[in-house]
Write a structure and sequence with these properties.
GO molecular function, one term: hydrolase activity, acting on ester bonds
Number of helices: 13
Family: Belongs to the 'GDSL' lipolytic enzyme family.
Mean pLDDT: 92
Distance between the termini: 51 Å
Low-confidence stretches: 1-27
InterPro entries: GDSL, GDSL_lipolytic_enzyme, SGNH_hydro_sf, SGNH_plant_lipase-like
CATH architecture of one domain: 3-Layer(aba) Sandwich
Largest sheet: 4 strands, parallel
Strand content: 5-15%
Protein name: GDSL esterase/lipase EXL3
Shape: globular
Radius of gyration: 20 Å
GO cellular component, one term: extracellular region
Structural class: alpha/beta
Oligomer: single chain
Strand order of the largest sheet: 1-2-3-4
């Protein structure tokens, strides 16, 4: 065996060992689901905000980042901040794994992506984005319009690499996930003066639903046919909202929850209309509100004990750059925490929520 061949063999062996020891352990909790009629999904494409951003914000100029400790504390073998706004996996990873596509869904802007990474899907999501274009503008992140532009670029890239026929198949048969809108209400409407002076909540949620409809129609126009859209969660109950408006008892902020429910009903209605208009599409509403509410109302059933504060720092207000290696009193074990920081759930919560919200809807994509 010549020396060059031995070096190549050793290199491959080390890569295999690295994958098994660092990457593989985090997927032991995610089981591949059986799809109806022996269907297969070629790729998963994701659009949205920090709930499903696996690191796109690492590559743009914004303060909305988390590519530093303690983020990623439980990712892989531990202490691997990737730009995911959690201690480990985020829903885009979990859904891609459930569908048997791949174990991690990478960020589209990652300069290390290979062709195979692109062919099996990416996330275009950007932490801080919203249906309202102003939401992304306020924090200098990529809007949904920017994300669609990246998707157009993506289509062009794979078309050049594998040809029109395979590209058409990938685009039409992939599953698309949209998860966005919480920042519109929590931040743009309630924490800044720009929209609340112009809209009340009924008219602002009308505007959001109209923007959502336009986005979904554009996505359909680019070839997407299997589209799942997460409704807004119980945003008034995230720790930062409790801190800002929940009083001494840190109660849930009812106004934010009412706004979320109002938007969700309008989003659902828009999706029904679009489903009739585009009869060859599958538009699937994913009810994260009631899924997360069940976890809040009966945390012990899901193995959680701490629901009013995050693990990072005091757990009351720390998020993004405020949650860092210098944050004192960060919990040592996230297992019983519903929230990682003051805005984003833990990997454990995401695993439970994904099962509650996604598993029984999978048949509706086909």
């Amino acid at each position: 065996m010549n020396l060059l061949y031995q070096k190549k063999l050793l290199s491959r062996w080390l890569i295999a060992i690295l994958w098994c020891s660092i990457i593989a352990p985090i997927f032991q909790h995610v089981s591949v689901m059986s799809l109806p009629n022996n269907e297969t999904v070629p790729a998963v494409m994701v659009f949205g905000d920090s709930i499903v951003d696996p690191g796109n914000n690492n590559y743009i100029t914004t303060l909305v980042k988390c590519n530093f400790p303690p983020y990623g504390r439980d990712f892989g073998e531990g202490n691997q901040p990737t730009g995911r706004f959690s201690n480990g996996l985020v829903p885009s990873d979990i859904i891609a794994a459930k569908l048997g596509v791949k174990k991690l869904l990478p960020a589209y802007l990652d300069p290390n992506l290979q062709l195979q990474d692109l062919l099996t899907g990416v996330s275009f999501a950007s932490g801080g984005a919203g249906y309202d274009p102003l939401t992304a503008e306020l924090v200098n992140v990529m809007s949904l319009s920017d994300q669609l532009d990246m998707f157009k670029e993506y289509i062009k890239k794979i078309n050049e690499a594998v040809g029109r026929n395979r590209t058409t198949m990938i685009v039409s048969k992939s599953i698309y996930i949209v998860c966005v809108g919480s920042d519109d209400i929590a931040n743009t409407y309630y924490q800044s003066p720009f929209r609340s002076a112009e809209y009340d909540i009924p008219s602002y949620t009308d505007f959001m639903a109209s923007e959502a409809s336009k986005f979904l129609q554009e996505l359909y126009g680019l070839g997407a046919r299997r589209i799942g859209v997460f409704g807004l969660s119980v945003i008034g109950c995230v720790p930062s909202q409790r801190t800002l408006g929940g009083g001494l008892n840190r109660a849930c902020l009812d106004s934010s929850n009412q706004a979320a429910m109002l938007f969700n009903s309008k989003l659902n209605s828009q999706m029904v209309v679009l489903g009739k208009k585009f009869s060859d599409s599958r538009l699937v509403y994913l009810d994260s509100y009631n899924g997360f509410l069940s976890m809040l109302q009966n945390p012990a059933k899901f193995g959680f004990e701490v629901i009013k504060k995050g693990c990072c720092g005091t757990g009351d207000i720390e998020v993004s750059i405020l949650c860092n290696r210098y944050s004192i009193n960060t919990c040592s074990n996230t297992t019983h925490y519903l929230f990682w920081d003051s805005y984003h759930p833990t990997q454990e919560a995401y695993l439970a929520l994904s099962s509650l919200v996604f598993d029984n809807k999978i048949k509706d994509f086909f």
